[in-house]
Amino acid sequence: MKIPKYFVAITVATSFLIGSSLQAEPLTWDFKGITLAGSTHDGRQIDGKEFHLQIFLNTSLRGSTIFENEPRFDGPFRGQVVITDEGTFAVDIFFYVQTFSLNGNVYTGPVTSVFYEQSQGRVEVDFASPIWNLPNQLVSINEEAQIQRVVGSVEFSGDNGRLHVVGTLDHFIATARRVVTELPGDGRTPSGPAVVTGELSNIDFLEVFVRGGDDHIYLNVMHTGGDGSDFTNWREVPAGDPPQLTVSEPAAVFYNGALRLFVRGPDSRIYENVFTGSPREPLNGWSGWSEVLGGGKTLSGPAAVVDHNGKLRLFIRGLDNGIWENDFRNGSWSRDWQEVPPGGGLTISAPTAVAYGPTLKLFVRGIHNTIWENDFVGGTFTRWDFVGGSTLAAPSALVHQRILKLFVTGLDDGVWENDFDGSSFTGWSEVSPPGYVHPEVFALTPSAPAAVEAFPHPAMPRVPVRGYPTVLVRGEDGRILQGFF
Fold first, then answer.
1. Helix or strand (DSSP H, E) at 263
2. Is-above-0.85 flag for pTM?
3. What letters, b where the CB count within 10 A reaches 16 and e where it falls short, cover 252-289?
4. Which of 164, 215, 292, 351 is the most buried (most CB within 10 A)?
């Protein structure tokens, strides 16, 4: 097999620990090394400098293809490198992967990445990404160790072509931790993002929508379709004539083989645009904007969800701060909006809803900034229950391995999480991870988070990716950040 230009091949000491299970946590590889001749920054030679390379192994989420009868993970993985006297740079790293057995356990990881010394001889051990749904897939390295013999090198480029490094490696450490990265494209938004996942044209996709500074709607998409399938740049959703604008965060849902995008217009009415094209060509295949029937108006962004019966349901905050619903039946929206019972539930932000088994759970920010829940079960909503916690924005939720994860923006602008295991919530804990380019900066947000179970379904046998909890937030400077939980 041909090894790609970007690869890592190192030898490590026997003190590493093998076999621990960390499938729920992202994995970061940390390397320390020295730049060699051929390394440049802005055209200057930077050989002989120490560098610290970090690779975030869960940041691709892009599946695999078959290459010469072996699975290949296309990458790129996002990473960052800190170079003495030069600064911190964003980089992308590519790996090949293979699946193999060791001592009865199944592992998946980058080919020729790590060699592990054992008393009976040298055995290849590859450290796997947690996105692979295989037993005992993840090997954890808990402490920094010096590399005994360098049997290869590392080569990578990054930061929009400004940096190119050829180096040797002398230390290695792998850690499980949360990370946050900025979506490529230098996008900005004055509102929270929206995120949706699904499958179109036999391609899994993860798509993010934002309101731009000009009130137009923009998208950024990653998919498992091969070329160019990582998040790349922001493109405007075809606006129509006259152009459709929005003054709040959008909402998106995958329903009945189509992506449906909803926005609140400048007139506070709710508009919809349906996409049935290929994720490879995200600007082709839109139906055009049309108003959702019923004449509903809202003071915040809408919320869309598909319940366990496959019904598409749209929720909004009404002009009276009540919570209202419109359902899509028999190919069209209802002409009447219905207030969610029992009456008296109020919100001052967008609602959010998630299907949890046979129950539809509806969450809102109350008028006193507390979080409330109403469950739809057995054909009716039950009552408004106090979840606890405080927020100044709309909540967001996803379901991962039968755990409902509820996210809110705290009063400190941090991201907070509360998990529901089927019987009770565990309590709030702050989960804002360190920043991508500046690790000392936490991912703070003044807007609502957007949570999704990325690629939640085994749509194609050749794509072994299963769900992975992902949260998008608007940073304090308007940038769009992606966290892995």
1. strand 258-264
2. no
3. bbbbeeebbbbbbbeeeebbbbbbeebbbebeebbeeb
4. 351
pLDDT digits 0-9 by tens, 174-194: 565 556 778 888 899 999 999
User: For residues 448 and 300, is the Cβ–Cβ distance under 8 A?
Assistant: no
SS3 state at 76: coil
Q: How confident is the model at residue 23 (pLDDT cuts 50, 70, 90)?
A: very low
Locate CATH 2.120.10.70 in the chain. Answer: 180-484
Residue labelled with tokens 């160019």: 228
DSSP state letters, 7-74: ---EEE-TT-------TTS-EEEEEEEEE-TT-EETTEE-TT-EEEEEEETTS----EEEETTEEEE-
List strands edge to edge, sheet with 480-484.
Answer: 180-182, 480-484, 468-474, 450-454
Q: Tell me which residue has tokens 């296309």.
A: 74
Closest C-alpha to 175, from 27, 53, 54 = 27
Q: Is the pLDDT of residue 217 over 60?
A: yes
Question: How far is Cα 472 from Cα 479, in angstroms, rounded to an integer?
Answer: 10
Q: Which of 44-53, 63-72, 237-246 has the lowest mean pLDDT?
A: 63-72
Number of residues written out for the chain: 485
| Rounded-to-integer distance, Cα 318 and Cα 294, Å | 13
Quote the CA–CA distance of 443 and 268 in Å, as a whole number: 30
Q: 180-484, what's its fold?
A: Neuraminidase (2.120.10)
The rounded Cα 372 to chain-centroid distance in angstroms is: 25
Read off the pLDDT of residues 387-445 as tens digits, 9 standing for 90 and up: 999 999 999 999 987 899 999 999 999 899 999 999 999 999 888 755 444 444 457 89
What is the separation, in whole angstroms, between the first and last Cα of the chain? 34
C-alpha to C-alpha distance for 180 and 485, rounded to whole angstroms? 10
